[in-house]
Specification:
Layout (H helix, E strand, L loop, with lengths): L3 H23 L19 H37 L1
Helix pairs in contact: 1-2
Length: 83
């Protein structure tokens, strides 16, 4: 049986992937998006800004929940070992 932490990690990864992939699929030319030449990296719109902010906040939350604790404890153990 899978642990609760593993289930939460898989669910969070699936959520992040869906948040990242679905907007790209919706904007693809096959889905009815308009492609008029090479993309302009500086021509952003409010939709891209909102999705970027949402994805950043999701990644920040996941890192805060799962990564920074173990990294900080490893750094503190190393610091005590050096002392």
């Amino acid at each position: 049986m899978m642990s609760t932490r593993l289930i939460h990690t898989i669910a969070a990864a699936a959520f992040v992937l869906s948040v990242c992939v679905l907007p790209a699929l919706a904007a693809s030319p096959a889905a009815g998006g308009h492609e008029e030449g090479p993309p302009n990296l500086f021509a952003g719109d409010i939709g891209n800004a909102i999705w970027t902010l949402v994805i950043f906040l999701v990644v920040l939350t996941l890192l805060g929940k799962f990564a920074w604790g173990p990294v900080l404890s490893a750094i503190q153990r190393r610091e005590q070992f050096i002392r």
